[in-house]
Amino acid sequence: MAVARATLRPVRRLTHDAERIAATGYLRERADERRSDELGRLARAFNKMLDALSRSVSAQRQLVADASHELCTPLASARANLELVELHATLPADERRRHIAEASGELREMTHLIEELVELARGDAHEPAKRPLRLDQLVETAVATAARRSPATTFRTDLRPTS
């Protein structure tokens, strides 16, 4: 009985470590991996798994923070344009249409971002289709978005078609 208890003590310790980490959710804790036998190897594998899980949780938090920021910008811009139209009923018709068009553009952009987030959340790990990318068009789109969001800033580009 004493031999069995002594033999199982490291297994109980490793089990206790795993249960404690699972209960607290504190992924920085580690199992004791100083042993040179199979239990030490199991503890090292468990700790590597915790490291990978910790990196995954960090990446997920960063993604949520980035997505929140990316969604807030067009939302704030659309809201500002619509509030401007609402508060200033005497705006000329062409200016009202411009503000509404800008708000619609921001909402379309936000819809696209949300669709991309939903696709990411589904976890469909499919390889994106490879297609030619024209850098001049990519820059043109980015500059147009920046110009819409920062009307006081002037952007100058000298773009030529790329292939």
Fold and architecture overview:
The protein is an all-alpha fold and 163 residues long. It has a domain at 10-123: Orthogonal Bundle (Helix Hairpins), CATH 1.10.287. The chain is built from four helices and no strands. Helix 2 (38-87) runs antiparallel to helix 3. It is elongated, with a radius of gyration of 27 Å.
Question: Topology, pairings included?
Answer:
Blueprint: H1 2-24, H2 38-87, H3 93-122, H4 135-149
Helix pairs in contact: 2-3
Key traits:
72% helix, 163 residues, mainly alpha, Helix Hairpins
How many β-strand stretches? 0
Instruction: Give Rg in angstroms.
Output: 27 Å
Please state the structural category: mainly alpha
Name the helicity range.
over 70%
Globally, the shape reads elongated
What's the helix-strand series? HHHH
What is the top-level CATH class of the domain at 10-123?
A: Mainly Alpha
Mean pLDDT across all amino acids: 85
Query: Which sheet architecture does the biggest sheet show?
Result: none
DSSP summary: helix tally: 4
| N→C terminal distance | 76 Å
Name the CATH superfamily assignment of the domain at 10-123: Signal transduction histidine kinase, dimerisation/phosphotransfer (DHp) domain
Note poorly predicted spans.
Answer: none
